[in-house]
Amino acid sequence: MRVPIKVAITFGALILASSLALAQDVHIGVLGLFHPRQFTVSAADGNAIVVHAGQETFVLEKSSGVPVAQIRVLGSTMVVRVGTHAVHASELTVTGRASGPADFLLAVPGKITRHYRGTLELKSGSGALVAVVRMDLETAVASVVAAESLSGAPLEALKAQAVAARSYFVAGKGRHSEFDFCDTTHCQFLREPPGPGTAAEAASATRGLVMVYQSQPFAAMYTRSCSGRTRTPEELGLSPGPYPYYPVDCKYCREHPSRWQSRISARDAASLRSSDESSRLKIDRRLGWSTVLSNSFARRNEGDQVILDGIGQGHGIGLCQSGARAMAEEDANFQQILSHYYPNATIVRFERAAADR
Are 70 and 101 a contacting pair, CB within 8 Å? Predict the structure, then answer.
């Protein structure tokens, strides 16, 4: 039975308003998977950025002839090179001309370049550079919607994703010591802010909306494709958290299961247990994230190897993105989608939205 979700466009209890008021900006650690020892930073097209390194300040823009700053680790500090000038610094920040957000490109040379909107902080630690982008909450939400959502998902499914992503940002801090969140699926996958299109529209249309349970925001979990029924954290050996994640049927995944098969050694399979998220993640970290795609699988032996036949993608908790897309294609709105996957939750608009009207 579907429990209708209540849409409360109010400011709620004082405890709720005060907790949400703290979530205007988020600090996201980026590109950490590369363990970078070098970065380059430059202004995005048509923009200028200000680099603050130690006591030195540099303005970078393509038209100035000084477009790029090069940063590398040197012991416990950094060397920042702009043109022929080199500066030793323990920290570096990048802002816009008015000390506010900037549009900039951050690159690990030879590996990856990404566009960000916000302010950048760089530090050295454990022989690598740590990059943290401080960005507006809504910029982060739009970026996650663009990175996490299924290709071709209708707008209402993307709106549901936006509310879930925003709820996670508001309530999910504390997973890292040096920043609020990382840019991987450990927290939420994040790339560059999207241009005009459905991802940006979904974030804008739901601006300020988050989900709460018993008057408290919760870090909404979501999954790529469940096996026809969503799971609870307890079913997978995880801590329950503030929201109980009632298991619900997912019609689309039941009728169109996402099947996968994997072959691993008997030695690796010895530590793998069905319906145990921790053991699944340990194997995936070691062997690759496509090794064990979900917690729903059967196993059979074949010589010194084990064949896994599975259904679903991800942990199976919370919003099922495949099911949400199917519901939206059948004309469900984002409130109905969230109602189905997060029963007994409430949608509220936090106080910043009032000032933006």
Answer: no
- Please give the Cα distance from 2 to 169 (Å, whole number): 26
Rounded-to-integer distance, Cα 143 and Cα 129, Å? 23
Angle between the N-to-C axes of helices 137-148 and 198-205, in degrees from 0 to 180, rounded to the nearest 10:
140
Q: Please give the span between the terminal C-alpha atoms of the chain, in angstroms, as a whole number.
A: 36
Distance between CA atoms of residues 340 and 156, nearest Å: 14
Query: Where are the extended beta strands (E) located within 109-188?
Result: 112-125, 128-136, 181-182
Name beta bridge partners: 51.
58, 94
The residue assigned the tokens 């494709």 is: 225
Task: Tell me the backbone φ, ψ of residue 144, rounded to 5 degrees.
Answer: -70, -40
Task: Identify whether the C-beta of residue 96 lies closer than 8 Å to the C-beta of residue 65.
Answer: no
DSSP-based three-state secondary structure for 126: coil
Can you give the pTM of this predicted structure?
A: 0.89
The tokens of 237 are what?
């050996």
Residue type, 123: K
**What phi-psi label fits residue 84: left (phi over 0), alpha (psi between -120 and 50 degrees) or beta?**
alpha
Of 163, 165, 129, 136, nearest to 148 by C-alpha is: 165
Q: Letter for the amino acid at 48? A: A
Whether residue 29 contacts residue 123, with contact meaning beta carbons closer than 8 Å, is answered with no
Tens digit of pLDDT for each residue in 17-72?
444 444 589 999 999 999 999 999 999 999 999 999 989 999 999 887 789 999 99
- Rounded to whole angstroms, the Cα distance separating 29 from 1 reads 40
Q: 307-316, pLDDT tens digit by residue? A: 999 999 999 9
Give the C-alpha separation, 201 to 158, whole Å. 9
Closest CA to 276 of 248, 244, 235, 239: 235
Q: Within 10 Å of residue 193's Cβ, how many Cβ atoms? A: 22
**Beta bridge pairs of residue 42:** 68, 105
